[in-house]
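Regression report. Comparing outputs from two consecutive submissions.

Submission 1:
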Amino acid sequence: MQTGQVISLSLYFLLMLGIGLYAYRQASSNLSGYMLGGRSLGPAVTALSAGASDMSGWILMGLPGALYVSGLVNVWIVIGLLIGAYVNYLFLAPRLRVYTEEAGDAITLPDYFENRFNDSSRLLRILSSLVIIIFFTLYTSSGVVAGGKLFESAFGQSYELGLYLTAGVVVLYTLFGGFLAVSLTDFVQGCIMLIALVLVPVVAFSDIGGMQPLTDVLNQQSEGFLNIFNGVGAMAIISAMAWGLGYFGQPHIIVRFMAIRDVKALPVARRIGMSWMLLSVLGALATGLVGLAYVKQHGAELADAETIFIYLSGVLFHPLISGFLLAAVLAAIMSTISSQLLVTSSSLTEDIYKAFFHKHASDKELVLAGRLSVVLVALVAILLATRRDSSILQLVSYAWAGFGAAFGPVILLSLFWKGVSREGTFAGMLSGAVTVLWWSNSTLQIDNQSLNTWLYAIVPGCLVAALATVLVSWAKSPSEQVLQGFQRFSELLKR
């Protein structure tokens, strides 16, 4: 690792820790302050923290690598994500912000489900908590693995050093500052990511000589490299765009909507968030394509396509700037880890410890429990990450689908349909999660493809969850309400 890179990364780590200490006073006052920042986030922090915690290392490594290898056919997933994020801001965010405050000032999704349906059985809280704890612990582990591999591939350091350093800094600022620290660091990390995703492709584009050399190289690639319909059928396009469905059920993203200071701030947050997301994905797409042209033009070799951003950062910039750009990759990884840690911690504290072990715990005790939960989840994630277990990384692909199917349909129905019942919500949540897990791991094949390759698991998962929620809710509703539901559905069809 060069001296300039060490300086840049050291400054980045100190900045993250400084933000954590800044947020410590407010976060330590009560549980709502620690877990939701006292519902006081401004629109800019809400938007960029949601975006940064969403995108992770995928936008700096995964997406550019996919474009580098197979071309513009990968834009379908980007289109799906953009549509999903916009609809999430437009429809889910305003109602969720209002409903969670009215539902007993719910600060977690399990808390919201229990209060929304007056669930004295606590089944909704238990099921939703288990989904969050299990999936996010493994999801967090994959982020820690990514941090270890970044230090190994980019800086020539040991995998273990990167693993412990990444996890250690995230745990410290999350431990001290809670949700406010996580949101503020995500805001800064989102800014760093955006600057990097604009700067790297622009400098690389200038270095290769502009549009004509770029076009010449891309035209020499495989047939259909620049064709978004190349080799994909309707099911492949649906699968790619279906990633957008996941937004409605991602706890680490929608918790930002619960924490914004008021509903009136959401339109501003939507404009900021969608602008950031659009510029970021365009920068990632450009990095993959311009990076391919740069590598071909200079006769270089790239062993792993997903390291194209790291490669360009190292060869095009001074070590000081290179360190800053590599910090952007680390920022993407850490922003997601911190959000997942806090959501899992909040579920362990509010939905397990307080709900089942100490109902009358003081705020001071609950904040302490939240901090201990952060450490506990991080230790388990680190333990899993030390094995470099590829199956953990594989879980990321269907954790998004699992959360989207388990939570997305039931959250939307609970916000927009008065007829949804407690039993229907439980059935939808359980059937959505089970469908995704079965579909993703089934040995059945269609057209010589596994089910998940043929159609992304989130599609059947959301369909089954929505159907189960509606049917079970109708079965538990008075016949008059069922008839009213059919009548409204008929009116919608006539329109």
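Submission 2:
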Amino acid sequence: MTTGTVAPAGDTVAAPRTRTARRPRRRPALTLYTWLVLAWLLLPIAVMVLFGFNDTHSKVNFTWQGFTLTWYRHLFAIPNLTAALVNSLTVALVVTVVATLLGTPIGVALGRHRFRGRGSVDLLLFSAIAAPEIALGAALLSLFIVLGVPRGYWTVVIAHVAFCIPYVAITVRARMAGHDPTLEEAARDLGAGPWTAFRLVTLPALLPGVASGALLCFALSIDDYVITSFNAGRTVTFPLWVYSASRTGVPPQVNVMGTLIFVGGLVIAGANVLFSRRRAA
């Protein structure tokens, strides 16, 4: 038999109070500051896009003279500029593939295993990222001179791969840190070999990190100027051509090409985000 206090028939039991969630306070100053910073970052890009439509009739493309689509129709009218753009695109593609293939196993090893010298490898990777580009470019130039390697297209590729590998390795390592190793162990228990378990279980989980590292390599390579200028020799890339043309006047085709590169980067980055979200879902 249990005893307890029974409320009278006419009384009501008060319900416990529930705390209402506080609405976040609006900070207009912080919002304004954020929009100002974004506007400052996007202003050069907006000017570049705008002056790609400028109806100029001189080499100096600094004064708005009207709207035209002429420069999109005559995008490849300057052979040297077209060749420089092709060099930048092909170098960026080769560097992206090579750096991704070399950097991904390093990231997997750092994220999965503990071995002697792991701290030294970490220090080396972060040092390569933190080092000034002028120091890295000068060091690579000295190396090529000592080895007697003529500077040109492939020295640019080697130089870009050298500073892109750490970005891929660190990105993949961060992705590997969040990977559950028991999934691969379960695949091994079900009869999958080491390579099969890595290819079917681990690699798909790492793909967003690998794709992010590859996109970062492409972006760093295609717009690099300092390291390229040290090791290019007679090879001219898009940034080198634009800098040399700035002394006499940058043609509107440069703005058009820059706009297309920017839009292409946005499309690829957006596709990567959608791909990552679908895999997460």
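Expected: both submissions complete independently.
Actual: both completed, but the second showed a warning that disappeared on reload.
Relevant detail on submission 2: The radius of gyration is 28 Å.
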